[in-house]
Design brief:
The chain is of the alpha/beta class. Helices cover 42% and strands 15% of the residues. Helix 2 crosses helix 4, helix 5 packs across helix 6 and helix 5 crosses helix 7. 43% of the residues are buried.
Length: 350
C-alpha cells in the first residue's frame, strides 16, 4: 500500500493480535511526513451531498502527508452520520442542525405497519455505493476505506422509532420490539455481506472508524440506549442481538460510551465473541483516571484500547501488560521517533 509500505506485515501482526498470539501490544502512531506540507483530513460527513471529488482529492493529499507507523493504517471513514445504518433501512437523515453531524428522522409509528429491511434502492445506500466507487477509483492501493459503522440493535430502533417510544414499547410490547430486533439483525448480516464486496475485504481486509484492522469482516457494535436500561433488559434485548452481530464477523470490538453504560460491562465481557472494549468516558468525566476500569476489563479476560500521551507511561504499561489484546495509540513528532518507541516496546516485550 503506497501510504504504508509495511501494510502486509502490519496486517499479519493484527491477525496475530486477534488470535492472542502477539508478543507486544498493538501500537498505532501517525506522524507528519518529513518535508511534506501537512494536509487537512476531509471533514466528517463529506460526500453526503453527492459531491465526491473534492473529498477524494483531500484524502489523497492527507494520506500522502503522513507516516502510518506500527499498526496504524491509512484509512478514510465513509459515513453520513452515526445513524447511517438506520438510513439503509428506510430512515431519512437531517443535516440541518449545524452541529457537524446528522440526525435520523424517526418514521415508525406502529410496529405492525412497517417491515424493517435493508433497502438497496434507498438514496443513502446508493450514495454509499457511489462514494465508495469514487474513492476506490483513485485510492485503491493507497489507503483503505472504513465503511459506515453498523450502529444496529436498540440504537437503530431508537433512531427509527424515537427513544421515548421505544422505551415504552420495551415494557408494554416487548415481543414486537424483539421481532423488530430480529429484522435489524437480518439487515446487519446483509449489509456486512455487501460491504465485503463494495470495499473488497478479500484484497484489503477491513478497518473500522477507530483504526482497528482485521483481514476479514469486522464488527464494531455499540448501544448508547444501554445507558437508559437496567441489566435485566440489557440481557433480554441487547445481548442476543450483539451475539448475532458478532456471528457476522471474524473480530469484534465493543464501543462502550459513557459511565451510565458501565453497569453492563460484566454482561459484555461474558460474551465469548467479544475481543476488545473501546471505552469512551463521555463529557461528564473527561479527566478521570480509569485505570481501575482497564484492570477490570483485563480481569474479565478481554482486551482494551487506550490513548497514552506520555511515551514513558506507554513503556511502563508495556512492562506490565495485563492482556494479550492491548491496543495503544500515541503521538510522535517524526517517523524516527515513532519507530524508536516501537523498538523499545519490542525490547521490553521479548
Amino acid at each position: 500500500m503506497e501510504f504504508k509500505n509495511d501494510f502486509r506485515q502490519a496486517a499479519k501482526r493484527w491477525d496475530a493480535f486477534w488470535r492472542g498470539e502477539n508478543t507486544r501490544p498493538m501500537i498505532k502512531i501517525v506522524t507528519p511526513k518529513a518535508g511534506v506540507q501537512p494536509a487537512a483530513h476531509p471533514p466528517y460527513l463529506a460526500g453526503h451531498d453527492g459531491v465526491y471529488g473534492p473529498a477524494v482529492d483531500q484524502m489523497l493529499a492527507w494520506g500522502a502527508s503522513l507516516e502510518f507507523v506500527g499498526e496504524a493504517m491509512p484509512y478514510y471513514t465513509l459515513e453520513f452520520g452515526p445513524d447511517t445504518f438506520s438510513a439503509y433501512l428506510g430512515a431519512d437523515l437531517d443535516f440541518g442542525h449545524g452541529l457537524h453531524t446528522s440526525w435520523c428522522v424517526p418514521f415508525i409509528k406502529d410496529w405492525d405497519d412497517v417491515e424493517i429491511k435493508f433497502r438497496r434502492e434507498g438514496i443513502w445506500w446508493q450514495r454509499t455505493v457511489d462514494f465508495a466507487k469514487a474513492i476506490r477509483a483513485q485510492c485503491d492501493g493507497k489507503l483503505m476505506i472504513a465503511p459506515p459503522t453498523l450502529v444496529a440493535n436498540l440504537d437503530s430502533l431508537a433512531a427509527m422509532r424515537g427513544i421515548e417510544n421505544l422505551l415504552v414499547d420495551m415494557v408494554e410490547r416487548p415481543e414486537k420490539v424483539k421481532r423488530a430486533l430480529d429484522q435489524v439483525c437480518a439487515a446487519h448480516s446483509e449489509i456486512l455481506q455487501e460491504y465485503a464486496g463494495l470495499f473488497d475485504f478479500a484484497a484489503y481486509g477491513s478497518v473500522n472508524v477507530e483504526g482497528f484492522y482485521s483481514s476479514g469482516p469486522h464488527s464494531r457494535p455499540q448501544c448508547d440506549m444501554s445507558c437508559m436500561i437496567g441489566e435485566e433488559m440489557f440481557g433480554e434485548f441487547v445481548v442476543p442481538a450483539l451475539k448475532r452481530e458478532a456471528a457476522d464477523a471474524d473480530t469484534m470490538v465493543y464501543h462502550l460510551d459513557g459511565s451510565d453504560a458501565l453497569r453492563h460491562l460484566e454482561a459484555l465481557c461474558q460474551m465469548e465473541e467479544l475481543d476488545l472494549i473501546s471505552w469512551v468516558p463521555g463529557v461528564q468525566h473527561p479527566d478521570e483516571d480509569w485505570s481501575w476500569l482497564y484492570e477490570k476489563i483485563s480481569a474479565y479476560g478481554k482486551g482494551y484500547s487506550r490513548y497514552i500521551g506520555s511515551h514513558a507511561e506507554l513503556l511502563r504499561m508495556c512492562e506490565r501488560q495485563d492482556t494479550r489484546k492491548l491496543c495503544l495509540s500515541t503521538s510522535a513528532s517524526s517517523k524516527a521517533e515513532a519507530e524508536d518507541l516501537i523498538a523499545k516496546v519490542e525490547k521490553i516485550c521479548k
